[in-house]
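ARCHIVE CARD
Drawer: 12
Card no.: 0347
Subject: one protein chain, sequence and derived structure
Cross-reference: see card 0346
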Amino acid sequence: MEQSTYATRPIHPVHAALLAGALPLFLGAMIADWAYSRSYQVQWINFAAWLNAGAMVFAGAALLWAVVDFFRGDRRRDRSAALYLLVLIATFVIGFIAALIHAKDAWATMPAGLVLSLITFVLALTSVWLGFASFRSGVGR
């Protein structure tokens, strides 16, 4: 096997923590929305709104890090890095829309809140997968 001439550097630990930190919060928001759709206990929507807000903090910081890292001069910009950035942007935008939906009255959040939470979680899962897959060190290949 031939070693490639360009080996990407591994993901920075802080970037990894920010990227992975949003995923369980988006999952929690989706589960809280699902619990509200089954029980109609208003507190579940409050949980979902707060979990979504916390996830947006992590996702926003990870997005900022990814944008700076993408446009740095010493980084090679390829399709996987661009796809990672686009999915992370989509995660942030859909998560922001979900936050606006969760700001409504509890009855007005369904079913859009649950659908947006599901879409945001899938996008967050995809961005975590792409983020960790596109920043391999190249060692051991």
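Annotation on reverse: The two ends are 8 Å apart (CA to CA). The longest helix spans residues 42-71.
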